[in-house]
Amino acid sequence: MAAVAAKPDSQRVGFVGFVGAGRMAEAIAQGLIRAGKVEAQHVLASAPTDRNLCHFRLLPPNARVLRVSPNLPCVVQEGAMVMARGRHAGNSEAELLQTLLEACGQCEEVPEAHVDIHTGLSGSGVAFVCMFSEALAEGAIKMGMPSGLAHRLAAQTLLGTAKMLLQKGQHPAQLRTDTCTPGGTTIHGLHVLEQGGLRAATMSAVEAATCRAKELSRK
């Protein structure tokens, strides 16, 4: 949870306070500082907490609460974030928070029921993608490529693919199909991934992370 105070007629905010000071709060804070939205001395943080919006219903009626789910790439201003409004949060508060967070990446407003799903998809998804990037590189290393080069190329491959999907608005299946040629290298590799259960394992990982996020938010 973050508290925000805006300066009149300014693109900056007066201060940002985080209720919860873990890695995600640090990622957002670093992203905001790098984007010039807030100065480092105006970032305040409390002890960590993990609460959903219903836990804040005992606050005074004029308390306007929005729940944010970020991810670690906020550090490099490429975060994938969602936010959900509390009962008393209006359009002005939502617009202010969304404008602020978009300095750290992409932020979309969703129903609160989707916030825990986002944790499984984009929060934990960072680790899932890192594991896949590591596996890509290790495949190349196994075939004789130097480690550093393999890891750089694997990361760039993921980055370039993500940019194509976002810029073209394509479904991933279409780009995957476009990459394949009859009897070529890609279709042979995809066959092995399907045999290994990559698709089902990834779906199950997102489901497991989402279920755990829901358990934690109820505590």
Automatic annotation (TrEMBL):
Keyword Amino-acid biosynthesis belongs to the record: yes
Catalytic activity: L-proline + NAD(+) = (S)-1-pyrroline-5-carboxylate + NADH + 2 H(+); L-proline + NADP(+) = (S)-1-pyrroline-5-carboxylate + NADPH + 2 H(+)
Domain of life: Eukaryota
Enzyme superclass (EC): oxidoreductase
EC number(s) recorded for this UniProt protein: 1.5.1.2
Keywords: Amino-acid biosynthesis, NADP, Oxidoreductase, Proline biosynthesis
UniProt GO BP: L-proline biosynthetic process
Pfam families (alphabetical): F420_oxidored, P5CR_dimer
Limits of the Pyrroline-5-carboxylate reductase dimerisation domain: 112-216
InterPro entries cross-referenced by the UniProt entry: 6-PGluconate_DH-like_C_sf, NAD(P)-bd_dom_sf, P5C_Rdtase_cat_N, P5CR_dimer, Pyrroline-COOH_reductase
Record GO terms (molecular function): pyrroline-5-carboxylate reductase activity
Sequence ranges assigned to domain Pyrroline-5-carboxylate reductase catalytic N-terminal in this UniProt record: 16-51
Pathway: Amino-acid biosynthesis; L-proline biosynthesis; L-proline from L-glutamate 5-semialdehyde: step 1/1
Keyword NADP: yes
Family: Belongs to the pyrroline-5-carboxylate reductase family.
Function: Oxidoreductase that catalyzes the last step in proline biosynthesis, which corresponds to the reduction of pyrroline-5-carboxylate (P5C) to L-proline using NAD(P)H. Proline is synthesized from either glutamate or ornithine; both are converted to P5C, and then to proline via pyrroline-5-carboxylate reductases (PYCRs). PYCR3 is exclusively linked to the biosynthesis of proline from ornithine.
Stored PANTHER family: PYRROLINE-5-CARBOXYLATE REDUCTASE (PTHR11645), PYRROLINE-5-CARBOXYLATE REDUCTASE 3 (PTHR11645:SF0)
Subunit composition and interactions: Homodecamer; composed of 5 homodimers.
Protein name per the record: Pyrroline-5-carboxylate reductase 3
Originating organism: Molossus molossus
